[in-house]
Each structure stands twice: as structure tokens, then as C-alpha cells.
Design goal:
By secondary structure, the protein is an alpha+beta fold. The chain has eleven helices and twelve strands. It has two domains: 179 residues, Ribosomal Protein S5, domain 2 (2-Layer Sandwich), CATH 3.30.230; 130 residues, GHMP kinase, C-terminal domain (Alpha-Beta Plaits). The strands form two sheets. Strands 1, 2, 3, 4, 5, 6, 7 and 12 form an eight-stranded mixed sheet that branches. The protein has a four-stranded antiparallel sheet with strand order 9-10-8-11. Strand 6 and strand 7 form a beta hairpin.
């Protein structure tokens, strides 16, 4: 039996950092607007008829005990589900290490989906996301709430987080985003999000919460000008929460270049910051010009919003 599960990489537009446990512990709520993209991570699991666990990713592991697996996602999931030796393979549509696109959460959701199918366990997408967050926090305690729920639950949406309560979802009109061409531009800088997240000033992050309310209203009233202004304002305020977000000279250079380009209506660095991908919201029909202007800086990937969350199939 072979099972393939895939989960989108999420794109966060505003509110990042307010989904962190430290922020919610202090302010008792957080909120983000995000969507899953048309870029995926993939997990394949199948019987291997050996007495070893075989884990394929950028490295290959063959071990006797699941607890000895170095890949955090595979180890935590296989131990949790008490799986006998099998083969697990990781793949992705984009360079995902340190991407700021919640790749680790996406992989964790995908492997939970695959293993529940493997064992015949029926969980809802919400339950899969909740379990994935629990497992990921075993090796990355600073994982924010938005990473799993933003990736594994489909649709363009606002997610509200409250202390000791389950997240609330409000779905937005994805047609609003279709007015833009959206791109990810790779900075070429890999980083662990942990150091950046540890440095975030949660009090400075509080200024992001009102922007979520205002952006939701701009989307609902079809006000592109206000939406773009709020998007850029959110990025400016996000940079103020930690000196590590844009401390690399290349990131500063790219940020300044994108901010001054007339084709780009809104820009931010995805995720915690410090590396990964810039997200650009651009005028329609400028694809050739965007590539001509920025191909020399970093690999450019055009993206779209995605209605789907986590998906699993048996083949």
C-alpha cells in the first residue's frame, strides 16, 4: 500500500506574530489573514518489507527505531502513531527550508494525514491541524498557531486565536486577490525561525491587531487602495518588532528595491523574517517585466490562492 498526502504552503498577509503563544498569553487573542497557496509539500508512505525505517528527504536515513530518526517531522509522527518500520519520503514544489511559508507545519500536517490513512483513523482537517501543531511544538515550541491552521484549512480567510479556545475562521472573497499577480522571490538566505521568533517584542506586535480588522473591511468593501496601504503598513510595523527580521544587507537591499518599484503594489517578507521569500502583489499582466527587473536577484515563482487544504490519496 502507498499513500500520498499533500498540504499547501501558507501565505500570511497581516497579523503574523500575534499568533505566537507568548503574545496570546499576554493579550489573550491574536488574528491573521492568510491563504494556502498552490504550492505544496508532499509525504509518501509505503510498506518497505524490511525491519528498518527509511526516511528520504535532502538526506536518507535508515534506522532500527523510530526514536532514532533525525528528521523531526518523521520522528514525532511515527512515534506518536506507533508505526512499524515503513518508508517515508518528503517532497515539495519549492525550496522550503527556512522559507517563511510554514513548510515544517505543512509537512507535519501531510504526514499526519498520511499516517491516519495508513492506520485507518478518521480525523477531520481541523483535528489533523490541531494534532500537527502539538507534534511540531515537540521540536519547535515557538511554532505559531497560524502555521498549521493556515496551511491545512483551505480558503482565503481570517483566523482569530483566543486563549484556551479553538480558532475561529471567517472566509473572505478570494476574487479580491485575483486582481493581483502574486510572486514569491527567494532571498537565497536560509535561516531557522527560532532565533527570530525569540527576539520578537510582543508589545510592539500588538499594533498589528487593528490592521487585521481594517484589512478585512477593505477586502469586504473591495477597497484595493486601502488594502495595499494596510499591507505595506503591516510590513513596516512587523519589521519594528525585531531587529533580526531585516538585519541581513541583502534583505534590506531587496526590500528597498521592491518598495520603490511602481509595478509592485504591496510587499513583505514571508514568515518570521531573516530570510526565505519576499511576497510581491503586483499589477496584472506585468509578468515579463517582473522577471526582467528581478530575475538577477532571486528565483521568482508566480503563485495563486488555493481553496484546498490537506489532501490524501491511496494508490
Amino acid at each position: 500500500m502507498m499513500i500520498i498526502a499533500k498540504c499547501p504552503l501558507r501565505i500570511s498577509m497581516v497579523g503574523g506574530s500575534t499568533d505566537l503563544e507568548a503574545f496570546i498569553d499576554k493579550y489573550e487573542r491574536g488574528s491573521v489573514i492568510s491563504f494556502p497557496s498552490n504550492l505544496y509539500t508532499y509525504i509518501t508512505v509505503h510498506d518497505n518489507h524490511t525491519d528498518k525505517y527509511i526516511i528520504n528527504y535532502s538526506k536518507k536515513e535508515e534506522v532500527d527505531n523510530a526514536t532514532d530518526i533525525k528528521n523531526d517531522v518523521a520522528r514525532e509522527a511515527l512515534v506518536y502513531f506507533d508505526i512499524e518500520p515503513i518508508t517515508v519520503t518528503f517532497n515539495t514544489d519549492i525550496l522550503s527550508e527556512g522559507s517563511g511559508l510554514a513548510a515544517s507545519s505543512s509537512y507535519t500536517i501531510a504526514i499526519v494525514k498520511a499516517l491516519t490513512m495508513y492506520k485507518g483513523i478518521n480525523l477531520s482537517d481541523f483535528e489533523i491541524c490541531r494534532l500537527a501543531l502539538e507534534l511540531e511544538r515537540n521540536f519547535n515550541p515557538l511554532t505559531g498557531y497560524q502555521d498549521t491552521y493556515g496551511s491545512g484549512i483551505g480558503g482565503f480567510k481570517r483566523i482569530d486565536f483566543h486563549k484556551n479556545r479553538r480558532p475561529l475562521f471567517r472566509y473572505l472573497d478570494v476574487a479580491f486577490l485575483e486582481k493581483y499577480d502574486m510572486y514569491l522571490v527567494n532571498t537565497g538566505i536560509k535561516r531557522s525561525s527560532t532565533a527570530v521568533l525569540q527576539s520578537v517584542d510582543v508589545d510592539k506586535s500588538a499594533t498589528l491587531l487593528p490592521l487585521v480588522d481594517e484589512m478585512e473591511k477593505a477586502i469586504e468593501t473591495n477597497d484595493n487602495h486601502t488594502f495595499e496601504s494596510l499591507f505595506n503598513q503591516g510590513w513596516i510595523q512587523k519589521k519594528a518588532t525585531s531587529s533580526l527580521i531585516t538585519n541581513n544587507p541583502k534583505i534590506k537591499q531587496m526590500d528597498e528595491l521592491f518598495s520603490k518599484n511602481q509595478m509592485i503594489r504591496a510587499v513583505k517578507l514571508s514568515g518570521a523574517g531573516g530570510g526565505g521569500y519576499f511576497l510581491l502583489l503586483c499589477d496584472k499582466e506585468v509578468d515579463v517585466h517582473i522577471h526582467k527587473a528581478f530575475d538577477h536577484i532571486g528565483k521568482i515563482t508566480k503563485i495563486k490562492a488555493n481553496a484546498a487544504g490537506v489532501i490524501g490519496i491511496e494508490v
